[in-house]
């Protein structure tokens, strides 16, 4: 049967919102099942009420744990709270407010009763803390979002005063305390009714949209975009950026069209992803099919962009190249920014995750800039963005951020709106599309072929992969080339990568276990073509299976 990937969702594909919301309030987790306990991945706790992994008891317990964590850390400033457009986000925000108000925490929610992108929350935390008097209480935040996950999922993420994702020390403490509270039947959780929480003197409002949109000229050359008349098509994909794009166009007088302003917690307008699920992944050609087709059917945009549900990821569609591979766009963005941001620290480094394309390494070398390669997870870029020593950080999964024109911090979380607008600045300043510029980079550095595959693995095998050392790998060659590095720690900061990366002159692969499924992921790249990549992938799987079985 033909795949329905890239076709519009049908009624049978849609989540039952009534069942989803009923389960949120009515279902309690079975704590003997690890999948129903609180567990923070790289982007917070995620799950579905229909699977008893994201229900009201989880949110009450996590929020109380955050209250206790911030008290232990001496964090006494306001807590900014954002939510996206997923069906579970509003009830989860309400549950959290009940706990926060009962504990006397000063909470700031959206003044417009709307949705707040993750980068707007990060920007708000950083702006508050930068403007606070020395020694004044610091702010932090909570984002209620599962990012690009399907409509039946919910997510809950904590951002400490540095504005970015919490590190594993923080999330580990919060998760352990939340599970303790769940095991004790939520004894120790303070709570008041949501109406009282909303009316509490400690609950206030904040205009996230104006704070973010009005500050954009400090980080982007909007004058160039406006003067060049770049025609922008922005697709919020039913997510939290929906009101932001219209305001960006209006306030900054850009030639910008919001392609689809619809908000629907079922996402009935979406085209199905590669596995025939609804997933707001703006880096996926299947999920982005509507916008891609609009461009190919003659839509008069110079740049079209998409964002996931919390707008921390970006998708770039050009008239001549279609949807850009995220790695390709990262390389173009880095090459452009480090040549045009004269206010940045001339010694600032380039940050990338170790599963991002090696063409970035070659671009960095040509710029005379140091490359810092870190494990998967945007939290690793936070210190550099804060200090200006790492003015750009990017992930292969279409998440990145960079600093303001003067080198000061913009956000310490991924900013899909920023990277989408950068594509228009690049077009305006260079007169070329990002895809044309990428072709120029490949002419200079070679044209790599990149892919990710999943391979089945038991829980025990995944644990073994996460604990590998380089000495466990005895092979000396990969796909006909001498192995030059076997990495279980990131070269940029020495942090464990939770897997393995093997490098040769013209290729590499990285294998790491999935945090949510019984698979491990193999990322691979070759500068010698598609057939060589297949050889790398096959040998990588055999090599990994040999050391974890």
Secondary-structure map:
Blueprint: H1 17-26, E1 40-41, E2 44-48, H2 56-72, E3 79-83, H3 89-102, E4 107-110, H4 118-131, E5 140-144, E6 153-159, H5 168-183, H6 194-199, E7 203-206, H7 208-213, H8 222-228, E8 231-235, H9 242-251, E9 255-258, H10 289-296, E10 303-307, E11 314-318, E12 322-323, H11 326-340, E13 349-353, H12 359-367, E14 371-374, H13 382-387, E15 390-395, E16 399-402, H14 416-430, H15 434-445, E17 449-456, H16 459-466, E18 477-478, E19 481-482, E20 485-489, E21 496-503, E22 507-513, E23 519-526, H17 530-548
Parallel strand pairs: 3-4, 3-5, 4-7, 8-9, 8-10, 13-14, 13-15
Antiparallel strand pairs: 1-2, 2-6, 5-6, 10-11, 11-12, 15-16, 17-23, 18-19, 20-21, 21-22, 22-23
Helix pairs in contact: 2-3, 2-5, 8-14, 11-12, 11-15
Proportion of residues in helical segments: 25-40%
CATH architecture of the largest domain: 3-Layer(aba) Sandwich
Task: Provide the domain count.
Answer: 3
User: Which homologous superfamily in CATH is the superfamily of the largest domain?
Assistant: Alpha-D-Glucose-1,6-Bisphosphate, subunit A, domain 3
Class from helix and strand fractions: alpha/beta
Q: pLDDT below 50 for ≥5 consecutive residues: which ranges?
A: none
Output the CATH class name of the largest domain: Alpha Beta
What is the spatial order of strands in the main beta sheet?
1-2-6-5-3-4-7
Overall pLDDT confidence: 95
Question: What separation lies between the terminal Cα atoms?
Answer: 34 Å
Number of helices, counting only DSSP H or I runs of 4 residues or more: 17
**General shape:** globular
CATH topology of the largest domain, by name, is Alpha-D-Glucose-1,6-Bisphosphate, Chain A, domain 3
Task: Tell me the strand percentage band.
Answer: 15-25%
User: What Rg, in angstroms, do the CA atoms define?
Assistant: 23 Å
Query: How many β strands by DSSP?
Result: 23
